[in-house]
Amino acid sequence: xxxxxxxxxxxxxxxxxxxxxxxxxxxxxxxxxxxxxxxxxxxxxxxxxxxxxxxxxxxxxxxxxxxxxxxxxxxxxxxxxxxxxxxxxxxxxxxxxxxxxxxxxxxxxxxxxxxxxxxxxxxxxxxxxxxxxxxxxxxxxxxxxxxxxxxxxxxxxxxxxxxxxxxxxxxxxxxxxxxxxxxxxxxxxxxxxxxxxxxxxxxxxxxxxxxxxxxxxxxxxxxxxxxxxxxxxxxxxxxxxxxxxxxxxxxxxxxxx
Length: 257
Ligand code: FPP
Description:
The protein has 257 residues and is α/β, with parallel strands linked by helices. The chain has one domain: Undecaprenyl pyrophosphate synthetase (3-Layer(aba) Sandwich). The chain is 42% helix and 13% strand. The chain is built from nine helices and six strands; from the N terminus they run H-E-H-H-E-H-H-E-H-E-H-H-E-E-H. Helix 3 (44-65) runs parallel beside helix 4 and helix 4 (84-100) runs parallel beside helix 6 (123-136). The radius of gyration is 19 Å and the shape is globular. The protein starts with 8 loop residues before the first helix and ends in a 14-residue tail after the last helix. The protein binds farnesyl diphosphate.
């Protein structure tokens, strides 16, 4: 069995996991790169660079575990407020990742997707995204989704605009607008909602990430900074998820009075 093969049921059991209780979709807010670097007297960008290693590690682990999707918050629409030098380096890292990871994405059979305001990105990055999305579109493995230049309020605003326009043109009846109508106009249309959101670096915020989609997600916060977050931490999160009691607003079977 090679290092990259999917885990068998008995391997999962030895990790305290089982297939039936794994989340389908995990969304991750990768926080603490800067603090990780600063604590070590390194420039912040070293934290981001090291963060890419965590990305590789967690994506591979999620794929071996058999998850359907992992969505990573790589760059928020608010991140443009950072110093120009950090922005340049972050965009460079992103481009490098898109190019270097293509082969690995194909090897693991991942479907690659990006959500966010892509038109606001450098055309070269848009091109790299498009190339990887197209190349991996027919793969049958886990979906790896990056949120880049993403903000949930903007995403919802754009969806409202599209729906209102369709209504004004008589393509949609106002009374027939449902939650599904809204979901199908978001950039995540067709993707399952995240079952779990992991955030690193001890921050208890959702920071404008997938606000519609995470309505019923379980939140899990790690005190590790993203550059030190590895597969063992991910498995710990999944073991905790297994113990959560997801009621979606209802009651447990058998509960009464
Ligand atoms: C938060 O750390 C992290 C980010 C703003 C970017 C995340 C980016 C990466 C992990 C690298 C690029 C990703 C890919 C997929 C190529 P922070 O800088 O806000 O940390 P701080 O709160 O400690 O300052």
